[in-house]
Amino acid sequence: MDRAKFEGVFSPLTDEERAAVFSKAENAFYSGGDVIIKEDSQPDAIYIITDGKMRVTKGISGSLSADFSGPLGLGELIGEMSFVDGSSASATLVADGDVKTNRLTHADLHEMIDGDATFAGRLYHSLLLILIARLRLVNTRILLPFF
After folding, report:
1. CATH at residue 24
2. What does the alpha-carbon distance between residue 84 and residue 53 come to, in Å, rounded to a whole number?
3. What does the angle CA 122 – CA 125 – CA 130 come to, to the nearest 5 degrees?
């Protein structure tokens, strides 16, 4: 596992909290074309990409899908939206070649949250910063129609 990725993703956490989260993470490996998270499924973990890239695809009609954003790479977190709101995945994440991740189960994270409200606040702050950065990136990609 690559502890350095935890430093960036979970920067609002204390050193002790990052170490505790890191200790719960497990390595997960994927080959090109493997689906890590499927749109409309209920993920049970979040992932930090430690090597390789993932494509983010979104179903557009029947069996057709299109790349939605990305690709996502080194140090990026995936699956955080479903963790935060408990909803199904809004997109499919596909390994674009060999991919290594650190996998953190929702159950492990919820156990840590339930045990320490201040940890919960800092963890959600971490996730909020990631979601804001992604929203800002999407905002720069939106082209408004000219009238």
Report:
1. 2.60.120.10
2. 23
3. 135
> What are the structure tokens assigned to 110, written together?
């919820």
The token duo for 98 is 């060999």
Give me the phi and psi of 62, to 5 degrees please: 55, -120
Query: Does residue 147 form part of some domain?
Result: no
Domain count, the chain: 1
Under the banding of pLDDT at 50, 70 and 90, the label for residue 9 is: confident
pLDDT digits (tens, 9 = 90+) for 57-74: 876 655 655 555 667 888
Domain that holds residue 122: 3-139
C-beta atoms surrounding 30 within 10 Å = 21
DSSP secondary structure string for all residues of the chain: --HHHHHHHTTTS-HHHHHHHHHH-EEEEE-TT-EEE-TTS---EEEEEEES-EEEEEEEETTEEEEEEEEE-TT-EESHHHHHH-PPPSSEEEESSSEEEEEEEHHHHHHHHHH-HHHHHHHHHHHHHHHHHHHHHHHHH--PPP-
